[in-house]
Amino acid sequence: MAFNQHGRTRTSLSEINVTPLVDVMLVLLVIFMVTAPILQTGIQVNLPKTASSTKVEVPNAIILSVDKEGNVYLGSEKRPLNIRAGELQKQLQQKLATSNEKKVYVRGDGDTPYRVIAFVLAECKKVGAQVSLVTEPEELK
User: Fold this and answer.
1) Neighbours of 70 (CB within 10 A)
2) Does a structural domain hold residue 16?
3) Are the beta carbons of 56 and 63 closer than 8 angstroms?
4) Is pTM, for the whole model, over 0.70?
5) pLDDT tens, 58-117?
6) Residue 28, in any domain of the structure
7) Which of 51, 75, 88, 119 has the most CB atoms less than 10 A away?
């Protein structure tokens, strides 16, 4: 209790000020909204546009990205896999063994030569994975 000059007591303020809490929560919400799309995509790939597109929303999805130079990336790794040395097949077998997910999503750049995409699809089939190609939805006109 606090005493003032005249000897009377005054009660303390027992309400919680929620304004700083709301401010912090709004800032966190904006940060997560901005960073969430960046975290999901990993390697920047110019996906082809189709009428029916596959959206990857599985949290532990196995994603292979193929850039326009033909480099293959597993997940969000920045180092490309050496597909000539069989590294792609080994890495896929390890991922499939440790994951309960048996589906592999292939994100291929629209300018990638078809032979590279076909090779990646064949390697996925060799290890027994189900394959889905990821595309972007076509813009409505």
Assistant:
1) 17
2) no
3) yes
4) no
5) 667 888 888 888 888 888 788 888 877 788 888 888 888 888 888 898 988 888 888 988
6) no
7) 88
Would you say how long the chain is, in residues? 141
> What band does 55 get if pLDDT is binned at 50, 70 and 90?
low
- Please report whether residue 5 resides in a domain: no
Q: Is 66 left (phi over 0), alpha (psi -120 to 50) or beta?
A: beta
Q: Is residue 32 part of a domain?
A: no
- How many domains does one find in the chain? 1
Q: How many CB atoms lie within 10 A of CB 14?
A: 5
**Structural domain of 106:** 43-137
Q: Where are the beta strands (DSSP E) in 25-100?
A: 49-50, 62-66, 72-74
pLDDT digits 0-9 by tens, 8-32 = 666 666 778 888 899 999 999 999 8
d(CA 76, CA 41): 7
Residue 34 token pair: 């901005």
